[in-house]
C-alpha cells in the first residue's frame, strides 16, 4: 500500500448504496473494513482471499465495542472515513419499518465510539458520510409535488429517523457529509447525476428536484466524490443526488 491509501469503514454495505460504494472503493485500491450482521452476504460477493484489502467484521451497528473495533486501523489510529448506509426493512404494510430508530442509534454509536477511542489516546479525524433521503428538508420542498403522498405514506417513519441522524452528525463537530438520494431503484443508468447542496444551518446553496436514482449510481457517486477524493464544497453539507 502507498501513503495515499485510505482506510474506510463501511457500515451497512451488504446491499444497495453501501455495497456499490464499497465495490468502487476497493477497486481503487483502498483498505476497507465492512461491518455487517451477516458476513455471508459479503463473502458471497468477495470470496475469502480474493480481496486482501477488505476486512469483514461481524456485528451490530449499535454495539459500541464492535464499532470501536471497526474504527481503528492496524497501525493504531482512527480510520480516514466512515460510510454509514444502514436502514431497516419495511413492515408488512410498508408504512413503517422494523426498527424506526436504526439510523439515530447508529449515529450515536459512531460518535460515542469516536469519543471513547480518543479518550484512550487514539487519534484521527474521519470524514463521516451518512446516507439519508430527500423529502425531509427544513428549507422547503425537495421532492416533486406528485411524490408527496408516497413519501407521507411510506417514508415518514424512516425519514424522521434519518432527520435525527443528520442532526447528530451536523451538531457533532465532526467533519461530515449527508447524501440524500431521491427514490432508489435498481440497475445503472447513463443519465447524468444532478447535485444540490444544502447547508444545515442556512439552507440551499443550489437545489435540484428529481424522481429517482439507482442504488449503483448513488454508491458510485458517493465513492468518487466523498471517499476517493473529498470535494470541499460537500464538506459539512447535505447533498441531494438525482437523475
TrEMBL record:
Q: So which domain of life are we looking at? A: Eukaryota
Entry's family note: Belongs to the avfA family.
Entries under InterPro entries matching the protein: NAD(P)-bd_dom, NAD(P)-bd_dom_sf, Polyketide_Oxido-like
In terms of SUPFAM superfamilies, this protein maps to: NAD(P)-binding Rossmann-fold domains
The record ties this protein, via PANTHER family, to:
FLAVIN REDUCTASE (NADPH)
Name used for this protein in its record: NAD(P)-binding domain-containing protein
Q: NAD(P)-binding domain spans which residues?
A: 12-225
**Which organism does this sequence originate in?**
Penicillium vulpinum
Q: Which Pfam families match?
A: NAD_binding_10
GO MF terms listed in the record are:
biliverdin reductase [NAD(P)H] activity; riboflavin reductase (NADPH) activity
**Which positions make up the signal peptide?**
none
Amino acid at each position: 500500500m502507498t501513503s495515499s491509501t485510505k482506510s474506510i469503514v463501511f457500515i451497512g454495505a451488504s446491499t444497495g448504496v453501501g455495497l456499490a460504494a464499497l465495490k468502487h472503493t476497493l477497486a481503487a485500491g483502498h483498505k476497507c473494513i465492512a461491518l455487517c450482521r451477516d458476513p455471508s452476504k459479503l463473502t458471497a460477493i468477495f470470496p475469502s482471499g480474493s480481496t486482501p484489502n477488505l476486512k469483514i467484521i461481524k456485528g451490530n451497528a449499535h454495539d459500541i465495542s464492535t464499532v470501536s473495533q471497526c474504527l481503528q486501523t492496524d497501525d493504531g489510529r482512527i480510520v480516514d472515513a466512515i460510510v454509514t448506509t444502514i436502514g431497516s426493512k419495511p413492515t408488512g404494510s410498508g408504512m413503517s419499518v422494523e426498527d424506526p430508530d436504526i439510523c439515530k442509534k447508529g449515529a450515536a454509536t459512531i460518535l460515542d465510539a469516536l469519543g471513547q477511542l480518543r479518550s484512550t489516546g487514539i487519534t484521527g479525524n474521519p470524514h463521516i458520510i451518512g446516507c439519508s433521503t430527500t423529502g425531509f428538508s427544513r428549507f422547503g420542498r425537495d421532492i416533486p409535488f406528485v411524490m408527496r403522498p408516497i413519501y407521507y405514506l411510506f417514508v415518514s417513519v424512516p425519514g424522521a429517523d434519518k432527520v435525527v441522524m443528520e442532526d447528530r452528525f451536523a451538531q457533532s463537530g465532526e467533519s461530515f457529509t449527508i447524501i440524500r438520494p431521491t427514490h432508489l431503484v435498481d440497475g445503472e443508468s447513463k443519465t447524468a447525476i444532478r447535485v444540490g447542496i444544502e447547508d444545515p444551518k442556512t439552507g440551499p446553496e443550489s437545489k435540484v428536484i428529481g424522481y429517482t436514482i439507482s442504488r449503483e449510481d448513488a454508491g458510485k457517486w458517493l465513492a468518487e466524490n466523498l471517499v476517493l477524493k473529498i470535494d470541499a464544497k460537500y464538506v459539512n453539507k447535505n447533498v441531494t443526488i438525482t437523475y
